[in-house]
Amino acid sequence: QKEVEQNSGPLSVPEGAIASLNCTYSDRGSQSFFWYRQYSGKSPELIMFIYSNGDKEDGRFTAQLNKASQYVSLLIRDSQPSDSATYLCAVAGTSGTYKYIFGTGTRLKVLA
Amino acid sequence: SQTIHQWPATLVQPVGSPLSLECTVEGTSNPNLYWYRQAAGRGLQLLFYSVGIGQISSEVPQNLSASRPQDRQFILSSKKLLLSDSGFYLCAWSRGLAGGPGEQYFGPGTRLTVT
């Protein structure tokens, strides 16, 4: 059973639309939750982190965490072609460790 | 501000040759350090992590090893490379928070091709 699951996509949205990316995790003891953006051939870039239930907004990005449902999501408003990338969900603090577990990523395509 | 360096950026090595990849972090002290591998089109595989000098946790057996000779230096090594060792190697650091792991930041990566 995968510890962090994401739909691999591709998720295609038109320019200006809202892109919604989802992630589920299996360990209820997880403490920290992250979203990374990875362009092809580049290293992952941290774009959002969230530690408590609810929503967290930063510019065009909103992260949502529901620990009861073991669910994390990322909303990207006013999507731009430059947002086209693979988005990785990561969960940390499982089993009381400093390990970070990554999903396999969702490929997002924003169509101009 | 903090900066993480990795070198070399690209490497082509024959099967059976040794490997040494280096990672250093600037602008922070006592970071948690990580090595990941990403095979082509795949997710990130955690290889090793370290929460302090001399403390290395291994997630992957086989022919890789890691060392942390200084607080902000993390080295990934192999005595004999396998074809399956090809991939994108990423070093990362994080600062531990009182409540658990904090944000993790990645270096630029080393692309290794074993021929």
Q: Which helices and strands occur, and which strands form pairs?
A:
The complex is a heterodimer of chains A (112) and B (115).
Chain A (H helix, E strand, L loop, with lengths): L3 E2 L5 E4 L4 E7 L6 E7 L6 E6 L3 E5 L2 E6 L4 E6 L8 E8 L7 E3 L3 E6 L1
Parallel strand pairs in A: 2-11
Antiparallel strand pairs in A: 1-3, 3-8, 4-5, 4-9, 6-7, 7-8, 9-10, 9-11
Chain B lengths: L2 E5 L2 E4 L5 E8 L5 E7 L5 E9 L2 E4 L5 E7 L2 E6 L8 E11 L2 E7 L3 E5 L1
Parallel strand pairs in B: 2-11
Antiparallel strand pairs in B: 1-3, 3-8, 4-5, 4-9, 5-6, 7-8, 9-10, 9-11
Question: Could you write a compact summary of the structure shown?
Answer:
In chain A, 0% of the residues lie in helices and 54% in strands.
Q: Can you walk me through this structure?
A:
The complex is a heterodimer of chains A (112) and B (115). Chain A is mainly beta and 112 residues long. Chain A has no helices and eleven strands. Chain A has strands at residues 4-5, 11-14, 19-25, 32-38, 45-50, 54-58, 61-66, 71-76, 85-92, 100-102, 106-111. In chain A, strand 4 and strand 5 (45-50) form a beta hairpin. Chain A is globular and about 45 Å long. In chain A, 38% of the residues are buried. Chain B is globular. In chain B, 34% of the residues are buried. In chain B, the strands form two sheets. In chain B, strands 2, 4, 5, 6, 9, 10 and 11 form a seven-stranded mixed sheet that branches. In chain B, strands 1-3-8-7 form a four-stranded antiparallel sheet, with no helix packed on it. The N and C termini of chain B lie far apart (38 Å). Chain B contains no helices and eleven strands. Chain B has strands spanning 3-7, 10-13, 19-26, 32-38, 44-52, 55-58, 64-70, 73-78, 87-97, 100-106, 110-114. The model of chain B has no long low-confidence stretch (mean pLDDT 91). Chain B has 115 residues and is mostly beta strands.
